Amino acid sequence: MHPALSVIFFTVVSGAGFGLYSLTAILQLFRLGPAMDRSELLTALITAFVLIVAGLISSTGHLANPKNAWRSFMRVKTSWLSREAVLAVIFFPFGFLYLLGVYLYGAHVPAFFGLMGLIGIVLGFMTVFATGMIYACLKTMRQWNTPLVPANYLLMGLTLGALFHLAIEAYYGANLQFITGVAGTALVMTGVMKGIYYYWIIKTSGPSINTATTFTRATVRLLDVGHTAGTFLTEEFGYQVEAGRLLMLKALVFGFGFILPLILIVAAAASQGAGFLLATLAVLSSLAGKGIERWLFFAEARHVVNLYHGAQHT
Amino acid sequence: MRLGLVIDLDTCVGCHACAVACKQWNTSGTTGPLTDYRPYGADPSGVWFNRIRHYEVGEYPNSKTINFPMSCMHCEDADCVTVCPTGASYKRKEDGVVLIDQTKCMGCNYCSWACPYGARELDRESGTMKKCTLCIDRIYDETLAEIDRQPACVITCPAHARFFGDFDDQNSEVSRLVRERDGMQLMPELGYNPTNRYLPPRINTPIPTEDVRRDSLAGKVKEWVNKAVAR
Ligand code: SF4
Ligand code: SF4
Question: Which of A192, A261, A312, B142 has a CA-to-CA distance to B170 between 20 and 30 Å?
C-alpha cells in the first residue's frame, strides 16, 4: 500500500490525543496516582484536544473530493470509516463538558461532569477501536485482516497518551513514580504486541495467483500487464519496500518507539530537575518510532490485486 | 435479476478491443469523462473500467497463453459497498448492478481498498471513484434496437468471448454457459461471490511444434538475408 502522510499523521496524533484524554480522566476520576491540581488537569486535557483536532483535520487531507466529506456520517450501519467519524464527533460534547467541569471546579468535579468524563473515555476508546477496524475489516489485505490491528491501535494510543501525561506531570514537578509505572507497562505491552504482529505477518496465506485466475492445477506466470505506464492500481497498491530496509525500519520502531522512551522515563523519574526535559525527549522519540511504525503498517500491507500484476502470493 | 458477464478464456484473443470500446462509450456516459493523464507525454495513463492482462499457464512446451479481461464483477456480497462511508457506492436491488453516485463520492479510496479485483479507479481530475457500470445507460435504452442493448464490450468483442445476461434466469445464455462449461469465480475464498464468471479453456490436443523450425536450404538463405538486410 502507498503510505499517505496525512493518514499516518492522523492515526498517530489523534490516537495519542484520545489516549491522553482517557488516561487523564481515568486517573482523575478514580483518584489514581498523585493528586493533580486544576492547571495540571487543564494542560493535559487541552493538549489532548489539540492533538485530536490536529489529527482529524489532517485526515481530510487524503480525500480527493473533500467537499463531500460531510457525507461520511451517512453509513454508520455498515462502514467503520463512517462509525469512526461519528464517534469522533460525538466524543466532543462529552469531552468538552468534562473539560468545563475541570475548569470550573478543579480536581473535584461534581458527579454530572464526572459522568460526562466517563462517557468521553468510552467514546474515545471506541473511536480508536473504530480506526483500527477500518483496516482490520478488509479481507483484501491479510496483514490488516486481524484483531491484532485494533488492539495495536488502542495500545499505541494509550502508550503515547501515557508519555504525554508523564511529560505534563514532570512539568508541574509532580512525583513521577506512579505514572512511570503506568507508561512503562504500556510501553512493554505495546512493544510485545507489535512483536507478535510482525511475527504473525511473516507467514503467507490467503489467495494466490492460482485462485485469482482460476488455474489451480498449473503454474501461472504474468506475461504482460496490458498497460504501458503506471495506473491508479499500481500507484495505490504496488508500493514495495526492500527487505533490508524493512528490517532496519523495524529496528527503528522498537528503538525509538519503545526502548529509548523506556530508558528516558526511568531516568526522568530518578532525576532531580531534568525530569521534564527527559520526558519530553521520551515523547518525541516515541512519536518518531510510532510514525515509522504506522508508515510500515501501510507500506507492508499487500493488496490481493498485486496478484494480477505479477505477485504469486500476497 | 442478477446481471453480469461471462468471459470465455478459451476464445479471448487479448486484442483489448473491449477495453477501448468501454473507454469510448463510458467517457461520454453517466460517470464520464474518464480522464487521461499526459495523453501525449512519455507515460500516458488514465482511468479505465476494463483491463486485459496476459498470463502463461502451465510449463513450456505444454503451456498456454491466457488473456484475462477484468472489470467489475458486480459481486453479490460486495464489500466495496459495505465500507463506503458516504453511501456513494450502492448495489441496485432490481438487477444487482453496482454503481457509484458521482455527486456523493468524497474520493477516500476506501472502496478501492476493499475490492479484490482492482475494479475501481480514482479519477484524479474529478476526485471521485469510477468503475464499470455494465453500461447501465445502454442496456436499458429503449431507443436502441434489442440487440444493441448490451454492454459496449460485449458488442464489440471480435472473438465473441463475452456474454451478457441475467444469471437468475436458468434459461439465459449466461446461465447455460456457466452450467455447461463450468463457469468459475475469481478468488471465491474471499467470499465476495462475484457475479461475473470465467469459462476455462476447452481441453484439446496440443498442436505439435517440433517440426516448425525445420526448413529447406532456400528457406534458410531467405531467412538469413531477411535478418541481414537493415530495414
Ligand atoms: S468487483 Fe470490486 S467494485 Fe465490483 S462489486 Fe466486486 S468488490 Fe465491488
Ligand atoms: S471513494 Fe467514494 S465511493 Fe469509494 S468509499 Fe470513498 S466515498 Fe465511497
Answer: B142
Q: What is the C-alpha to C-alpha distance for residues B148 and B70, in angstroms, rounded to an integer?
A: 22
At A273, is the secondary structure helix, strand, or coil?
coil
Task: Note whether residue A222 is domain-resident.
Answer: no
Interface touch A64/B88, C-beta < 8 Å: no
- ipTM, two decimals, is 0.93
Looking at the structure of chain B, the number of domains it has is 1
Residue B231, pLDDT above cutoff 70 = no
- CB of B82 closer than 6 angstroms to any ligand 2 atom: no
What CATH number is given to the structural domain containing B83? 3.30.70.20
**How many beta-carbon pairs below 8 A join chains A and B?**
174
Give per-residue pLDDT as tens, A234-288.
999 999 888 899 999 999 999 999 999 999 999 999 988 889 999 999 999 999 9
In a domain? residue A120? yes
Interface of A with B in 104-143 (CB under 8 A): 134, 137-141
Looking up cell 519496500 gives: A241
The CATH number of residue A248's host domain is 1.20.1630.10
- B101 C-alpha to center of ligand 2: Å? 9
Q: Does A210 touch chain B (CB under 8 A)?
A: no
Partners of B193 on chain A (C-beta within 8 Å) are none
Tens of pLDDT, residue by residue over A184-234, are 999 999 999 999 999 999 988 889 999 999 999 999 999 999 999 999 999
What total of structural domains would you count in chain A?
Answer: 1
Q: What is the A171 CA–ligand 1 centroid distance (Å)?
A: 53
- Tell me whether residue A246 is in a domain: yes
Query: For residue range A138-165, what is the model confidence (pLDDT) as tens digits?
Result: 999 999 999 999 999 999 999 999 999 9
- Chain A, 40 to 99: residues with Cβ < 8 Å from chain B are 62-69, 71-75, 78-82, 85
Q: Give the closest of B68, B121, B192 to A232, CB-based.
A: B121
CB-CB under 8 Å, B84 with A223? no
Write the pLDDT tens digit of every residue in B188-214. 999 999 999 999 999 888 777 777 766
* Ligand 1 atom at minimal distance to the Cα of residue B98: 5
Q: What's the CA gap between A82 and A116, in Å, rounded? A: 23
CA of residue B77 to ligand 1 center, whole Å: 9
